[in-house]
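About this split. The held-out portion is used to measure sequence recovery: a designer receives only the structure tokens and must propose an amino acid at every position. Recovery is the fraction of positions where the proposal matches the reference. Here is one held-out target exactly as it appears in the evaluation file.
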């Protein structure tokens, strides 16, 4: 039994989730409460991979990172390195496809709570950095966690863009979705069924845990738990 698809999927999905979480939270916080010309265009570009077919996203990635693409050509000339058909291709595809889910969840989470809470902390002498980590981030955390779980699940199940950019190379780019597809193509239905059961169990477990945690957080919120800006008052 070759367990490489499972380890590769977990590895790339985990790393992609961390990267997407950091960038997604930063962009969402930057754009959520600011209005400027072109904001709608920026958000449309960010959300585009969510509505485009994965093969179209994969084609765009192949165009940019292929050996004749603008980024791929520079990497090949400067570092003698090619992203296509490598582990990096799997990671990039997962990041691009999963990013809109994290951004959407983070933006909604930051827009949901009352901005006056932050303003009150500012008037009491708290810095922007401290307000973010002690007020904004905790208040937005339920939404951020939902985005985190959905991002990981989406990265874990990515198929179309990965196939276009990374291809299927055993023990190199064979994620679980690709292993399922090529097992069916080769007629190995037993192997395909095994991986289908595995990925369904992983996705179901993630959603089940997220629902349980959301209900628990809602109950704690109703009890009055949450950060209080009055503790930032200057002494």
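Reference sequence for scoring:
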């Amino acid at each position: 039994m070759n367990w490489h698809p499972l380890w590769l999927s977990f590895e790339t999905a985990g790393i992609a989730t961390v990267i997407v979480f950091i960038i997604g939270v930063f962009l969402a916080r930057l754009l959520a409460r600011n209005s400027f010309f072109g904001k709608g265009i920026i958000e449309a570009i960010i959300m585009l991979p969510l509505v485009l077919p994965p093969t179209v996203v994969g084609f765009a990635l192949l165009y940019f990172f292929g050996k004749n693409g603008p980024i791929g050509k520079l990497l090949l000339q400067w570092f003698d390195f090619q992203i296509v058909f490598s582990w990096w291709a799997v990671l990039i595809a997962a990041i691009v496809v999963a990013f809109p889910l994290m951004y959407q969840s983070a933006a909604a989470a930051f827009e949901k709570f009352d901005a006056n809470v932050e303003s009150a902390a500012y008037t009491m002498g708290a810095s922007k950095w401290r307000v973010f980590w002690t007020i904004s981030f905790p208040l937005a955390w339920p939404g951020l966690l939902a985005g985190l779980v959905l991002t990981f699940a989406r990265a874990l199940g990515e198929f179309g863009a990965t196939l276009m950019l990374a291809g299927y190379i055993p023990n190199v780019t064979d994620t679980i979705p690709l292993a399922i597809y090529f097992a069916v193509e080769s007629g190995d239905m037993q192997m395909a069924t095994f991986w289908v059961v595995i990925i369904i169990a992983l996705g179901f477990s993630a959603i089940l845990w997220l629902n349980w945690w959301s209900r628990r957080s809602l109950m704690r919120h109703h009890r009055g738990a949450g950060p209080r800006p009055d503790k930032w008052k200057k002494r």
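Annotator remark: Residues 189-222 form the longest helix (34 residues).
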